[in-house]
Amino acid sequence: MAPQPNETRPAAPGDDESLLWYTALHHLIDEVVFIHREDRSIAFVSPSVETVLGYTQDEFTRLSTPELIHPDDLPEAVETAVRLRAEPGCSYRSTLRIRRADGRWIWVEIVGQNLLEEPGVHGVIQTLRDVSERRALEQRLVRQAHHDALTGLANRRSFIETLEGLLAADTVPPVGVVYLDLDRFKPVNDTLGHAAGDEVLCEVARRIQGAARARDLPARLGGDEFVVLAHGIGDEATARAAGSRLHLAVTGPVEVTPGTEVDVAVSVGVAFTRAPCSADDLIARADAALYEAKKGGAPVVVRLPDGGDDRR
């Protein structure tokens, strides 16, 4: 019986159905569909590969895995491929870097399934999507969660988490906390404005970062308070040296506007461990040493593990 007006005719199997499927792939401009054969050659790739990766279909099918995948991501990708091929029907999802035709590396998400034993497929079918923007957003959010927005140093949360991790180890390494607080900082904001105050804080952060060693962790706790997690501090001489080095680096004029300088002064308290303790305890002892420095006028005070202090 002839179809009535507006009646939809089912797609016929065979060539027409294949053409319909292939035509649909032209509209998948955000995803690349490709099939790996058992010998790992690329048997098919969708036309969207040119939009997403910049390769023609012919160029892409002639590329090898090491040419496409970032060297740092290649070992895990190879391991994943071996696992995938070992189990018929197995599927996976991974995120890695792929080289575009213009040489740029982009982050992509690949979803694949082992259909090597599936009649009519006999391959591993995969879809690839560019997730560079999403990855960049995730990295920004991670950075915002662990870094101070003004100075770029680690924030309080990141500092405490790192210190807690060190102090929770089976063998606590020699580590100290150097606590710094700017002297007479409030008048800077009151007389010159918060923009000038921010410039002072940013310059102090740069000086602390420059004076800290590569393995140390400088952080801003808030306001004009800074700390440095200093590795290798297990005695008062080393603690004093670390405190004095940072005191010397931070102290000095900062030009906040052309012709206007702020003379930066800082008090420093240092505490270190000789036995397991909590992060809060070590920070509190460094803070107590800082208070002694401000009260007594000494630039650096070291709080000894037994509760005493050594002024300098």
Dominant shape: elongated
Distance between the termini: 104 Å
Q: Helicity range of the residues? A: 25-40%
Q: What can be said about the biggest beta sheet?
A: 7 strands, mixed
Question: Which structural class matches the secondary elements?
Answer: alpha+beta
Q: How many E strands?
A: 12
Work out the helix count: 11
Radius of gyration: 30 Å
- The topology string of helices and strands comes to HEEHHHHEEEHHEHHEEHEEHEE
Strand content: 25-35%
Overall mean pLDDT stands at: 86
Stretches where pLDDT falls below 50 for ≥5 residues? 1-14
General description of the model:
The protein has 312 residues and is an alpha+beta fold. The chain is 39% helix and 28% strand. It is built from eleven helices and twelve strands. The chain has helices at 15-26, 49-52, 57-61, 65-68, 74-86, 132-146, 156-167, 186-192, 194-211, 236-250, 279-296; strands at 31-36, 42-45, 91-99, 105-115, 123-130, 175-183, 217-222, 225-231, 252-257, 260-272, 300-303, 309-311. Strands 6, 7, 8, 9, 10, 11 and 12 form a seven-stranded mixed sheet that branches. The protein has a five-stranded antiparallel sheet with strand order 2-1-5-4-3, with helices on both faces. Strand 7 (217-222) and strand 8 form a beta hairpin. The radius of gyration is 30 Å and the shape is elongated. Residues 1-14 have low confidence and may be disordered.
